[in-house]
Design a protein that fits this description.
With about 400 residues, the protein is of the alpha+beta class. It is built from 12 helices and 11 strands. It is about 55% helix and about 15% strand. α4 packs across α8 and α10 runs antiparallel to α12. The longest helix has about 35 residues. Bound molecules: flavin-adenine dinucleotide. Flavin-adenine dinucleotide (FAD) binds next to β3, β5 and α12. One of its GO terms (molecular function) is acyl-CoA dehydrogenase activity.
Length: about 400
């Protein structure tokens, strides 16, 4: 088991510097344009694919880095470049992880490559769980999956919302209800292959931030998919449902919620995205404070400004440490006894919102305009306290874990 260390090894430093170069030279200069266009930055995804940053191999390598620091380091550097473009590059990973976590080896081998395509023909994928009436309350999901035994097909019906890459994805991973009696234990994940009839894009959302990332509704009307598109396979599902029914009938001990454990492990990655955005805004503010003069001296000469920068940097470093700890715990299989994954996401996302707001303040009127990047960074930062579980939900998980009480 890898010991926890704050020293990146030589390989990690090399990858970090390579990612930073791409974020500095390709992502950051394009950020404003794609924010205004509010479109998926296909040419930038293609650039990333050409040099290997947009590929399953690269993410698998970072994911399996035994120190646990590969993914947070990757997220921080790319999101330092720009959050909207970076999400367009890493958004496919959410769907890929859904397949890696629940799929058979054959399903992984078949579908994950189709999610990425290749450098000449890049593709993206979408993970569709949220619904109009089931956001934080995942158990309220209504999209149904019914098995048609005669044809060995699953039939999906429902409306998904807020899906990153929804409708433009080559492969959609859809979570649906197979047994409504069992709440979230009655859910299963399905692959909807490219070009399947009945899947269409609903409304595309015009957003406050991360505007280069495509977010849309996904409508499923009598979507028929082959039986082998159920992730994990029918036998595994039947076995899992039978166990859940037994537990429910006996009123016995609750099944360990695997989904919660997965969330704890994936939330630090969102925390790392937030650290990237916060660090970017802090650097712009520090630079500006040293060069902007008022009353005959740089504004950083005022403690009121310098102390803000000191606090910003302290919070960013604290956020990174929480993220790295949680990522190391996830990789080395340490149990999240104090909801350390949620803690890292909560702290880092709130930090990004505050630090980007402080950066606008330090830039004064310029900070409030689109001539300077901190205005965009502040809009982007607002997403981190919402997706992958809102800050309130992180606090709920923490409060329940720490107290052992059913806090509501
Ligand atoms: C840009 C973007 C991209 C997204 N990408 C995806 C994606 O790819 N796939 C996907 O499936 N989903 C995605 N989501 C959905 C996201 O995960 C949900 O928006 C999020 O889980 C919150 O759900 P909601 O928006 O329905 O808010 P609600 O659940 O309605 O919450 C509204 C408010 O009530 C609070 N609240 C709710 N319940 C409680 C409670 N018990 N205690 C205290 N406060 C509570 C919340 O914290 C929040 O402040 C995305 C969302 C956005 C905005």
């Amino acid at each position: 088991m890898a010991e926890f260390t704050l020293d990146l090894n030589d390989d990690q430093k090399q990858v970090r510097d390579w990612l930073h170069g791409f974020a500095r030279d390709v992502i950051r200069p394009a950020a404003s344009e794609w924010d205004e266009r509010e479109e998926t930055p296909w040419p930038i995804i293609q650039e990333a694919a050409k040099i290997g940053i947009y590929s399953l191999d690269f993410y698998a390598q970072q994911f399996f880095d035994p120190t646990g620091l590969g993914i947070p380091m990757t997220m921080e550097e790319l999101f330092w470049g720009d959050a909207g473009i970076a999400l367009s590059i890493v958004g496919t990973g959410l769907a890929a992880v859904g397949v890696l976590a629940n799929g058979t080896e054959e399903q992984i081998g078949t579908w994950v490559p189709q999610m990425y395509g290749d450098a000449d023909d890049v593709k993206v994928a979408a993970f569709c769980s949220s619904e109009p009436d089931a956001g934080s309350d995942v158990a309220a999901m209504r999209t149904r999956a019914v098995y048609d035994e005669a044809k060995d097909e699953w039939v999906l019906d429902g409306t998904k919302t807020w899906a990153t890459n929804g409708g433009i994805a080559n492969v959609h991973v859809v979570v649906a209800v197979v047994d409504p009696e069992l709440g979230s234990k009655g859910h299963a994940s399905f692959i909807v292959p490219p070009g399947t009839a009945g899947l269409s894009q609903g409304q595309k959302f015009k957003k406050h931030g991360i505007r280069a990332s495509h977010t849309a509704e996904v409508v499923l009307e009598d979507v028929r998919i082959p039986g082998h598109c159920l992730l994990g396979g029918k036998d595994k599902l039947d076995h899992r449902l039978a166990r859940a029914r037994e537990k429910a009938a006996s009123g016995g001990e609750r099944l360990k919620n695997a989904a919660m454990a997965t969330f704890e492990a994936s939330r630090p990655a969102v925390g790392a995205m937030a650290v990237g955005t916060a660090r970017a805004a802090y650097e712009v503010a520090l630079d500006y404070a040293k060069t902007r003069s008022q009353f005959g001296r740089p504004i950083i000469d005022n403690q009121g400004v310098a102390f803000q920068l000191a606090d910003m940097r302290t919070r960013i470093d604290a956020a990174r440490l929480l993220v790295w700890r949680a990522s190391w715990m996830a990789t080395t299989g340490k149990p999240f006894t104090s909801a350390e994954g949620s803690m890292s996401k909560l702290y880092a996302s709130e930090t990004a919102k505050e630090v980007t707001a402080q950066a606008i303040q330090i830039l004064g009127g310029n900070g409030y305009t689109r001539e300077y990047p901190v205005e965009r960074m502040h809009r982007d930062a607002a997403i981190y306290t919402i997706f992958e579980g809102t800050s309130e939900i992180q606090r709920l998980v923490l409060a329940r874990t720490l107290s052992g009480m059913p806090i509501r």
